[in-house]
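hey all, quick one before standup. I had two proteins in the batch that finished overnight and I want to keep them in one place so we stop losing track of which output belongs to which input. First protein below, input sequence then structure tokens straight from the run.
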Amino acid sequence: MAFLGKQVDAARATLSRATAIPFLVRFGVALCGLIAMTVAWPSAIVASEWDVALVLVALYPAVAPRGRGATVSALVVVVGWIADTAGFEDKIPLWRVLTIATLLYLGHSLTALAAVLPSDAVVTLDMVGGWLARAGAVVLVSAVLTVVALGLSADLTGGAFVLATIAGIACAVGATVLIARLLQRA
């Protein structure tokens, strides 16, 4: 019981020293997680008694950004997406795909920022704005490429589709090997 008292005292001390910008970054992590959970999971589950568990999983990376919370939260979002599209046989509208991808990326990026940003740090909005501008550029480019790829995939059928799929997998494997070799050199 004494351990729990020490943890509560440490949390109070941290909250009393917290500044606005690190708090807003963590709030952004929580908001991205909550919206991603809501969009990914079937509405029947979101409106049920499971909503408390989903909220806790979505908030976990905001509370403890240095741990595995972002990974766990992202995996739960993906499981919800699979459950909704495969289990409930919902249609797959483009806006849901882009929203989930955007929120997962922004949540991951903000979690990385929150992990290195002490809760009592004095930071300007320019630093966070630059961070968000770079993340927004990545989201925009990937959304445009997704729409283009989906447009091309509608034109590809049969052998051309298989060839394009194999080429895409080969590019992904090649990029992974390249990154691994560059990391070994460093």
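OK second protein, same deal, sequence then tokens:
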Amino acid sequence: MKKVISWLLVILMIAGMTGCEPLAKKFRRKKKETVRMPRIHQVQKYEKKPSQELYKKHFSYWSSWQSELIKVLGKNHKKDEVCIEHIMSNLADMQGILIPEKGAQLAVHIKRLSEVRDVILNEDLSVANRDYVLRTLEREDRYIKRDFSYRKVKSCLRKSFNDEEEPSSGAVEEERVGPDAAVK
């Protein structure tokens, strides 16, 4: 009897070492394979045309971001970065909606504000730079609101983004007063 028990223990030890993986595998649940449905994208030609509403929207967004930056300048660097990037983006969109001649006039203001953006992004807002940036933002705010409000440029809007257009009969003539006046 001792011999049988010892052989039984030896067999159980050998079985324990080799394992019963095939037996356990047989009773384990198998993962369900999920069948993914392919995504279908319908491609449509989307044509965005310049319009009065689009210009008004970008002008309004620019104005709100500009006033926000003037209010919070220097308090939070990340907020300053976000504001100046939105300002530049909306001005670029406004420039794209205008005819090339009027867009070139707006490019002057965009260039000045890009210098302000460089100061803000370089985190160089010392007291002197902060005053310079604040004065520049306020000055450009006044100039752009005066010269590029919808009432002033409604006759200078493009009909399409694809082609260069000639100004319509009621085009606004450039006339500046101040230190950045254009030489005629």
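Flagging for whoever picks this up: The radius of gyration is 34 Å. Confidence is low (pLDDT under 50) at residues 165-184.
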